[in-house]
Amino acid sequence: MDARFTAEQQEIRRTVRELLLKRSGPEDVRAAVRTGEGYDTALWTALAEQLGLPGLALPEEYGGVGCTVTELALACEELGRGLTPSPLPATALLAAPLVLALGTDRQRRLLLPRLATGRLTATLAVPGAALATALALTGDNHGPWSGGGRAGGVQARRDGDGTGWRLYGEVTQVLDGHSAGLLLVAAHTGGFARSRTLLFLVRAEATGLVRARQTALDETRPVGRVQLRDTPAELLGEDDEADVPAALAEVGDAAAAVLAAEAVGAADRVLERTVAHVRQREQFGRPIGSFQAVKHRLADVYVGVQAARSAAYYAAWSAGVRGERVGGQALAQALQALRTAAAEGVQFHGGLGFTWEHEAHLYVKRATAEALLLGPAHRLRGRAAELAGMFGGDDEEVRG
Fold it and tell me: Domain Acyl-CoA dehydrogenase/oxidase N-terminal: where (predicted)?
């Protein structure tokens, strides 16, 4: 195989980087997170309409560009470098692929072109802290994570005339849940007899829908609380027999690969900033970067970032070509690389690295928040080992 990027892929990376260098510097990011949406709407319009990022991995028949997960990963790697806040992860990694996988032909033709142009943003709302479980990144997703037939989670009931659905419940920590124009809500239905999880489309203007932005550890990843009070919803798909867990697992693997590339971009940026700083900061009359201990520690960070980059690229290529489930493993490695790079960045910046004005703390928060949302790394690795069959066969064989 030829692992080199094509000229088109390199052009995508270059174009995204040039735009972000002009319009998404540290001060721009700080201003963006203070807006009601949590991101720069003008920049999002440029990313969507000029560069076509939301539709990069969508088929051309639905208004997309027709590229693969790899191209989307390269674009998100550049977004990760500056921690650029945008609705791209929720819209292009979670919502749009699910509509493509499970939606009816009418739903696809109605929604995907609008998602591809960025005129409509969307997100996936999963009850509780179960996003990693729902996407099958930290465990099997066939369990009762959406409600389980008991109080809690989100419950779905048919209308009195049996033609529609109503949703009841609350979902917290939804990516862009306060601002997305379309919600894909995972809800439990069927009681105990036919207990299952289905996905429903809820428009922003639906009655009984109450949303509010929440305080987040990582401000560059805005999240919202969604309350559903007898809210009308449309079932995603033809009928209520769709294999939702399988679709979520496939989407989750590709999303993990792209988010791994995004984390690699962030880690690489932290390393760049740290290397530049240790070359300038002097101690005992010489730059601290000339000390052997500093060189060794930063060399370890560099090796970790490069290894994570290779894993992320392979996972993205695999999701688009071979269908292997290695996204979670790549994400675990990338989050660990980002966590290490961010910690060392703060350490080597000294007192400056701890200040609110410096951007180093933003990368620490991104590493921590991402692990809370989709990890932690040891659970991602545990699931990857389970999928690879490293824990043996069935239960009887393991006990034996």
Answer: 6-118
1 found inside a domain: no
236/293 same-domain check: no
| Confidence tier at 159 by pLDDT (50, 70, 90) | confident
Q: What is the CATH number of the domain that holds 267?
A: 1.20.140.10
Closest CA to 204 of 184, 230, 174: 184
**What's the pLDDT band for 71 if we cut at 50, 70, 90?**
very high
Residues 253 and 378 in one domain: yes
| CA–CA dist 261, 254 (Å, integer) | 11
Q: Within a domain: residue 394? A: no
State how many domains the chain has.
3
Residue 61, C-beta contacts closer than 8 angstroms, at least 6 positions apart? none
Query: How far is it, in rounded angstroms, from Cα 75 to Cα 366?
Result: 18
Nearest CA among 251, 236, 217 for reference residue 364: 217
Check if the beta carbon of residue 154 is closer than 8 Å to that of residue 186: yes
Q: How far is CA 387 from the centre of its chain?
A: 21
pTM greater than the 0.85 cutoff: yes
For residue 392, being part of any structural domain is answered with no
Residues 111 and 127 in one domain: no
Cβ atoms 328, 140 nearer than 8 A: no
Model confidence at 121: pLDDT above 50: yes
Q: Are 121 and 181 in contact (CB under 8 A)?
A: yes
In 151-213, where does DSSP find H-type helix? none
Domain extent for 364: 246-387
147 in the same domain as 102: no
Output b/e per residue, 363-375; b: 16+ Cβ within 10 A: bbbbbbbbbebbb
